[in-house]
Amino acid sequence: MTDSQKSDETLSAAAANETEAEAAAADGTADGTIPADPADQPADNSTPAPAGAAVPVPAPGPVPANRPAPSPAAFAARPKVGPSVASPAPATVSSAASLAEAARWGRVEGDGQVFLTVDGAEHPVGQYPGVSDDEALGYFARKYDDVLAQIVLLEQRISSKAPTTDMQKTVTHLREQLAERNMVGDLRTAEARLDTVSTQIRDLEKAEKAEHDAVRAAELAAREAIVAEAEEIAGHDPAQIQWKTSSARMNELFESWKTAQKSGVRLGRSNEDTLWKRFRAARTVFDRHRRAYFSQLDSNNSAAKAAKEKLIAEAESLSISTDWGFAAGEYRRLMDDWKASPRASRKDDDALWARFRAAQDVFFTNRQAANDEIDQEYGANLTVKEALLAEANELLPIKDLAATKKALQSIRDRWEEAGKVPRADMGRIEAGLRKVEDAVRHAEEENWKRSNPETKARTNSALTQLESAIAGLKEDLATAEKAGDQRRIKAAQEALEARQAWLEQLEKSASELA
Predict the structure, then answer these.
(1) Model confidence over 262-299: pLDDT tens digits?
(2) Is 135 contained in some domain?
(3) Are 125 and 183 in contact (CB under 8 A)?
(4) Could you tell me if 27 and 175 lie in one domain?
(5) How far is the CA of 425 from the CAs of 325, 372, 386, 433, in angstroms?
(6) Helix (H, G, I), strand (E, B) or coil at 385
(7) 151 in Cβ contact with 191 (< 8 Å)
(8) Which end of the chain offers a freer environment for a tag, N or C, measured as fewer CB atoms within 10 Å?
(9) Are residues 287 and 330 in the same domain?
């Protein structure tokens, strides 16, 4: 039960007791007094309730056996006498300090009539006949204490920053009780405390509102972040989006939205509707793109499967071919077409590739078996060609070009007669013979260069020119030496040395050509 509920319950109880007291008082005489029957006034030695607690109003005593109890209807029909007439129940004896405080603000006349002093003026608050003045005054003082206890309770709730729900209603209710002037106490001080409490409640309400606004702003930002991320995911290019990851994240965002909707702060219908429409639109776009993407993917997958099924059919038809060269070329073409064709789904593509590879394996296994059989037949040819290769290598280095060429031709003729060799040895054997052939060809080229008439003519011409140039440089050097010009002497010597080096090279080439 909340503090405000406890407060309202206590106030309701006090009001009910007051009504009961008034009904009991109505059973008295026409002048407002209580019958002096001792049986109607049982003794009560209870002490006043502590401050801050609800003080119950004494209930009417038992009805004597020789007198019938009045019915509820009789109580309702009896008129009330005076502003307030106390119940004939025994009063609680107040402490001396409490009575002294009450005496500052009220007094009792001989007939039990109690008066309250406010701002120097007296106001009748009620009558409690048949009891002592202290008891009559204490009864109405306890009604003030009840109100004061409710004020203390409000101050404590404000100090602990309890929720302000119904606090102002409690203040209004207490003001109304004080305004009725049916109690004895320092009403002005109580009203001033209520003014302070009311101001504090307003400040607390402002703080609560600020805190609520901050929480609401944070919740709004969190909800905005959910919507923004959903819109960002939905805005990706469908051809490049990672559907598995994005779908999982979109589901997480939806769960976050539902959790916030269920247990988060309310954002108001306008904000809730606007954000939900954006979030729903983003999810709708994402789902539409996903369906379209996978629909297109299914279509592409079907087309890829059809194209690769066709390639598989060709590969399977070639698998039994014995035209090894043609079939091997066709398999290379089919492999290029396979690589260029679109991919199907991973599962389908793996199964299709297994079938295509199986057809290739059949062909190449058959070809390898045929080659192995041929290699066995060519084993004797390999022995003959290895002997011929050894004979050819003995021709190197070349000393007599004409004799070497004649011997190489004989080796070639016998090489062709020997026939094919196993495939594994073909490259090695052919490369060995080609090495000897290249050496003979290189020797022929060198011989041609030396015997070429044009080369000889160019060499002789260059010799003549160099000899003429050297003679001129020698004359220049002699002139420079006679003149003592060191710069010209140095230049003439360098030029002369260079020309003489060229002349030596040309003379060497000319001798080789001769």
Answers:
(1) 877 777 788 888 888 888 898 999 898 888 888 877 88
(2) yes
(3) yes
(4) yes
(5) 19, 13, 10, 13
(6) helix
(7) no
(8) N
(9) yes
